[in-house]
Automatic annotation (TrEMBL), chain B:
CDD domains: EcfT (cd16914). It comes from the Bacteria. It is found in: Cell membrane. It holds the Pfam family CbiQ. GO terms for molecular function: ATP binding; transmembrane transporter activity. Belongs to the energy-coupling factor EcfT family. Its main location: membrane. GO terms for cellular component: plasma membrane. It is a multi-pass membrane protein. The chain crosses the membrane at residues 26-43, 74-95, 115-137, 149-168, 242-263. Forms a stable energy-coupling factor (ECF) transporter complex composed of 2 membrane-embedded substrate-binding proteins (S component), 2 ATP-binding proteins (A component) and 2 transmembrane proteins (T component). This is Energy-coupling factor transporter transmembrane protein EcfT. It comes from Furfurilactobacillus rossiae.
Amino acid sequence: MAITFDHVNYMYQPNSPFEAVGLSDVSFTVPSESFTAIIGHTGSGKSTLVQHLNGLLKPTSGTVTVDDFQLTAKTTNKHLKSLHQHVGMVFQFPENQLFDQTVERDIAFGPLNFGFTNEEAMSLAHQAAHDVGLPDELLNRSPFELSGGQMRRVAIAGVLASQPRVLVLDEPTAGLDPRGRAEMMAMFAKLKADQQLTVILVTHQMDDVADYADQALVMAHSNLIKAGTPAEIFANPEWVKAQQLALPTAANFAQHLVTRGFEFDSLPLTAEQLAIQLRGQLPKEGR
Amino acid sequence: MLEQLTLGRYIPGHSWLHRLDPRAKLVLACYFIVIAFLTTNWLTYVLMFAFIGGVIFLTGLSFSYFVRGIGPLIWLIVFTAILQLLFTPGGHIYWHWGILMITSTGIQTSTAVFLRFLLIITMATVLTLTTAPLAIADGVEALLRPLRVIHFPVAQTALMLSVALRFVPTLLDEAQTIMNAQRARGVEFNNGGLIKRLRAIVPLLIPLFVGAIGRADDLATAMESRGYQGATNRTRYRVLKWHNADTIAVVVILVLNVVLVVLRHM
């Protein structure tokens, strides 16, 4: 599903002493089945932006278009249910949304709300549990008995079970150990390929942007200040630092190599790109 | 939805009212609420509303903010007033149907209920809008202190109160987050009949309780690791000081009381 933001503004608690700008004139397009990363420092409006994707927040002015659904200030809540189903949201620390008595029932909760029959919901729940790598023997346990990493997988399965076409991930790997983080990102990449999902990822991990994203959106002070491929975003390291962001590990490494006399045609963003460009430059005995 | 209610909310500021001693504010707000019941004729209502108008002016907050904040509660007030109107016998009967009737006494009492309710809620709103929750807890502790004579656990009660107040915004935020997550999974909180709505609350309440209990546990650990012990005589960082302004506020309320008593006999 393609997504378009057209001059979207959002104001928190308008006309009160707590009034605050959430989004200011944000416009961009996300092609169907692409992987888009949203980056920016804390409080820059990333989470506000993604909450517009499934109508949890409605623009104060402007239009959000998801496929053929148009979301404006006037959209009523009654029309939002199909949008909720087609745009799956994985919030920060999604394990906080678990509540049911068994893992299976918690995962099936979404499909049941969206009108699937009990059998369909259970079958979708089993499929989603399998997709996120939860062993079958956990399905009848209470979600509160599981480890933190397993709880997060249950919560993600609970979103996937409703068969969304767009998957919005708000810092899905926060609080996981490095291995759990790598596994989780690989899992999202596989899900995207298998189910032809459009993925939107809010993240502070520049390596994930370099490794997975087709395009990146940079937010600062409620504004969208740059949109482009990761190569375009990271092309100017000084600008990146000025936005309180960082370079991907490989790019950082390459920059240090430049001060030692190495030369790169373009700044490598991933370990693979770095290795390819280094191959010809290493002295013979080092190979 | 949760954002609209102003009752119980604090807005930081530096007005004369913000800087009053919380003990004075607590006692005077209660005192005002009590003397609100001394109102009888229109002169006394004019006096009280003029007074509360002045108080609102002193908060430095916009008048419309109060109007909108009290808006959601107006239905409660109107409902109470209508009950009074329909069930009060006495005086001249204008209309009656079964046990329902509109009488002259009914009109008088329901008007009184409506206006007094409005005065009380506005004053309570002023108190919470201009007093930080922790200052309220300090004030309550100071006012309860005499009860130590009868071994009432004043320090612990005050701690419980301040912890509870401290976590109100945190829990509201968390409730909002969980609501969003469950709405994204297809729960409709504002649709359907009573039973459907009650059922929709379960997926909200369970995670909220799980989170709150976890948080309470963490807080207890953090406090113990910093050596907190309940019963000892603790010194405090924020020491309450009585200023001239507090005395002036007391005098103003006493004068209001006297004028009120005079007016009600006119």
